[in-house]
Amino acid sequence: MTVWLKSTWEKGGMRMLAVQQLEAGYGESVILRNVSLKVKPGQVVCLLGRNGVGKTTLMKSIMGLLKARRGAVSYNGQELTKQAPGRRAKSGIGYVPQGREIFGQLTVYENILIGLEAARDKNAKSIPQEAIAKFPVLPTMYARRGGDLSGGQQQQLAFARALASKPEVLLLDEPCEGIQPSIVDDIRDVIRSIKADGKTAILLVEQSLEFVKSVGDYFYVLEKGAVAWEGGLESLTDDVIKKYLTV
């Protein structure tokens, strides 16, 4: 897989996140079975499936928070499967985890600064304008503690923290979970603007079908830890939804 990906990238100039036949789990339990997918710049790929099928496990495996038992994760022709999470972040992968995981005792400003630790530019000392331009409310809250923000504001903060490193791949795990509709709309607009820029590949986990249909280009459905279906928006029919996603 690595050889194929590198050859494709060298010939076509294409940067790509590629997961090939990935297997991962916890303890004796196997959660992911031979999962393969790819995400290109300017593309929003959505990962769908009922609760407990392995979506967050896959995001953690791509980020290196969970070690793969088999298979490969590559980006930009570089093998990442055995790399630590920090190394993966510095290769250009940003991560907004489920539950946001902001630092409640730190200020909004300090939380975003932490994102700079993953920046490829070792001299980066200040928050890039593009990280906060999409969330204009955050600079007005710089002195507030992260734990004092609403759920929606914390989600915006987690998003800005990931953008601070200027990632080329953005992993978004349930960014709309538990937040008010107005901020869901803001996040939709941010994803669309990043997509329109054409420089960043986005892998999105989200339960809301209305939301993923409004931003997604390609879809993978997980069932029992394996890819059960994949296709474009026009192929995501009511029959597919009923078979794989309806509870």
TrEMBL record:
InterPro entries: AAA+_ATPase, ABC_transporter-like_ATP-bd, ABC_transptr_urea_ATP-bd_UrtE, BCAA_Transport_ATP-bd_LivF, P-loop_NTPase. It comes from Paenibacillus radicis (ex Gao et al. 2016). Gene3D superfamilies: P-loop containing nucleotide triphosphate hydrolases. Belongs to the ABC transporter superfamily. The lineage of its organism: Bacteria, Bacillati, Bacillota, Bacilli, Bacillales. This is ABC transporter ATP-binding protein. GO terms for molecular function: ATP binding; ATP hydrolysis activity; branched-chain amino acid transmembrane transporter activity. NCBIfam families: urea_trans_UrtE. One of its GO terms (biological process) is L-amino acid transport. Residues 14-247 form the ABC transporter domain. PANTHER family: HIGH-AFFINITY BRANCHED-CHAIN AMINO ACID TRANSPORT ATP-BINDING PROTEIN, HIGH-AFFINITY BRANCHED-CHAIN AMINO ACID TRANSPORT ATP-BINDING PROTEIN LIVF.
